[in-house]
Amino acid sequence: MKRNQFITATIAALATPLHLFAKNKNICISLDKGFKVPAGEGRIHGHIKLKGVNANVLDLKISGSDSNGGIAIFEQTSLSQGKGTPLHVHHFQNEIFYVLEGHYFFKVGDDEFHLSAGDAIFLPQKIPHAWTQVSALGKMEVIFQPAGKMEQFFVTVAALDHEPTKQELAKIFFDNEMAIVGPPLEIQR
């Protein structure tokens, strides 16, 4: 399935449950006008260059502000072989990764997964998870539902003028409705 078809199908699949089952009806997707975000560009923030967790680049494709907080979609260009995220929990977001290029290793709860181009993985809220980049380069679509504070998390990390300490990083995670619960993953081949 092509990337655009995947994004369209994912938005459609997520929009229906949000509308029908959300306790707060304000989080359902209700765009007034469509828009296009060209390949290789990020909406609102341009390229978001991360610090601390890894040195990857995120391009915001759909902001939580575009969807009344219902969803946020990023394209991640992975430049940090052997790095990923610490084991962490999202208190309020489900997370979906769709691998476009490269190879990754994920841990979700007690389960471990190897992903490569064309593979997708669902990470439910409140379940500890982490991932690391196995290949030298890679690219993934990253979807958060609902959007929560993830856009602000990435902007905050990118705005740092230094590599954050473990304590600083833990506070940034906490301030954005997440918790670090373990170390980053080692590469598993």
Break the fold down into its secondary structure elements and pairings.
Layout: H1 3-21, E1 47-49, E2 57-62, E3 72-78, E4 86-90, E5 94-101, E6 103-108, E7 111-116, E8 120-123, E9 129-133, E10 138-145, H2 150-159, H3 166-175, E11 178-184
Quick structural gist:
With 189 residues, the chain is an alpha+beta fold. The chain has three helices and eleven strands, in the order αββββββββββααβ.
Structure description:
By secondary structure, this protein is an alpha+beta fold. The protein has a single domain (3-184), classed as Jelly Rolls. It has helices at residues 3-21, 150-159, 166-175, and strands at 47-49, 57-62, 72-78, 86-90, 94-101, 103-108, 111-116, 120-123, 129-133, 138-145, 178-184. A six-stranded antiparallel sheet has the order 1-2-3-10-5-8, sandwiched between helices. Strand 6 (103-108) and strand 7 (111-116) form a beta hairpin. The longest helix is centred in the N-terminal third of the chain and has 19 residues, at 3-21. The radius of gyration is 16 Å and the shape is globular. The model is unreliable at 15-29 (pLDDT under 50).
List keywords for this structure.
single chain, 189 residues, 11 strands, 3 helices, Jelly Rolls
User: What is the C-level CATH assignment?
Assistant: Mainly Beta
Query: Total number of helical segments?
Result: 3
Query: Order of strands across the widest beta sheet?
Result: 1-2-3-10-5-8
Determine the CATH topology.
Jelly Rolls
Rg, Cα atoms, Å: 16 Å
Mean pLDDT across the residues is 86
Overall structural class, as computed from helix and strand content, comes to alpha+beta
Largest sheet composition? 6 strands, antiparallel
Approximate shape: globular
Number of strands: 11
- Elements, N to C (H/E): HEEEEEEEEEEHHE
Helical content stands at: 10-25%
Uncertain runs are: 15-29
Question: What distance separates the N and C termini?
Answer: 26 Å
